[in-house]
Specification:
Layout lengths: L5 E2 L1 H11 L8 E7 L2 E7 L8 H9 L9 H10 L4 E2 L9
Parallel strand pairs: 1-4
Antiparallel strand pairs: 2-3
Protein name: LysR substrate-binding domain-containing protein
InterPro entries: LysR_subst-bd (IPR005119)
Pfam family, one: LysR_substrate
C-alpha cells in the first residue's frame, strides 16, 4: 500500500481525474480557502455521514475522506493510519 504524508491541490485534482470516470454530477459543493484564495470543488459522494464517530470509522476503513476534529484523528494521524488531505487548505470560518 502506498502512503503519503499529505496531498497537494494538484495531486487531488489528478487523483479525482484518474479515479472518478465519467462526469461529476453537482450533488455537493465544498468551499476551501488558503491565504485569501477560495476554491470550490464539486463532488459526488458515495456516502454522506453527519456523525463524527461514523466518519472516523469510515475513513479508517478506507471508504473515502472526511473532515474530523483534531481530537478525533490526531492519534490515527500520528500512527500513520490516516493522512491529511490538502493540509494547506481549510474550510471557511462559520
Amino acid at each position: 500500500m502506498q502512503t503519503h504524508t499529505s496531498f497537494s491541490w494538484e495531486t487531488w485534482r489528478t487523483f479525482k481525474a484518474e479515479n472518478r470516470p465519467g462526469p461529476v454530477h453537482l450533488l455537493d459543493l465544498i468551499r476551501l480557502s488558503k491565504q485569501g484564495e477560495v476554491e470550490e470543488i464539486s463532488i459526488e459522494p458515495d456516502i454522506s455521514i453527519n456523525d463524527y464517530a461514523a466518519i472516523r470509522a469510515a475513513v479508517l476503513a478506507s471508504h473515502g475522506i472526511g473532515e474530523l476534529p483534531e481530537p478525533l484523528c490526531i492519534q490515527a494521524l500520528q500512527a500513520g493510519h490516516l493522512i491529511e488531505v490538502l493540509p494547506e487548505w481549510s474550510f471557511p470560518e462559520i
